[in-house]
């Protein structure tokens, strides 16, 4: 990719309408947002954060390869096939090849529409031009992945506050993403200390999380799931999704059902699944169905009610569900709603 493009030629949406009367705005027929992964990754600037060595790169590379081949993302969500740029700025070509060979050993095919780059200048030293060159050469691009954000963010002007610096660094990527209506995914890190709000786990100031359109945090979970993907944003519904990782294939898969089921210990998870399918169950019925000791079931149901995972009416238990929960089946429906018809050579 050429680095000849000067910084001054970064696109500026001067011809885009930015002002309407209220009546004019209501009459505008805006196109639906473009999704890289329906329900998860929408057009604009997305930030994926997680602890070191948790699998963020495997996750982002897997998503990119799936989109480039038109294969289901996370082995579940239908996507539209198209070009993807993956900037693996912490990898060498040899390591990237080894990783892709491991992924391909599971039966997938090499992705001709996936461009892999291991060396990019920072955004303040020519990186903007590199990204624009690729987007101009790939007008049907579906996704741009920057792994990692810190490697490409660029220098901070002297005297700028940390908040302003983080906001400005993210805005450089967002300006391009918005101009081309292409989802961008920045890979980033989390703080060492935990936080009750997953957005507060993202390393940096609120300037970074405020500038992006969506935040995804990959967090190691207790119990059955390898991790939980927390998602929130301007165009995505806030939710948690349980994922499992296959180290042999280097592949993340979306698990069925709410993430809360997979965050529980095994006994709670079995009770939760049974009560979801059979509302109003008694401890005796749950015990008979699951084969778990009745006394254990009674004690666990009581603790789950105290933790607001169940509620009881006349000795029968019901699941306490969030009002806005979205499960895997709903994500699949989202993929059908947001996918556009496949073009020649694309997956049907």
From TrEMBL:
Pfam families: AAA_25. SUPFAM superfamilies: P-loop containing nucleoside triphosphate hydrolases. It comes from Actinopolymorpha pittospori. Gene3D superfamilies: P-loop containing nucleotide triphosphate hydrolases, Winged helix-like DNA-binding domain superfamily/Winged helix DNA-binding domain. It comes from the Bacteria. This is AAA domain-containing protein.
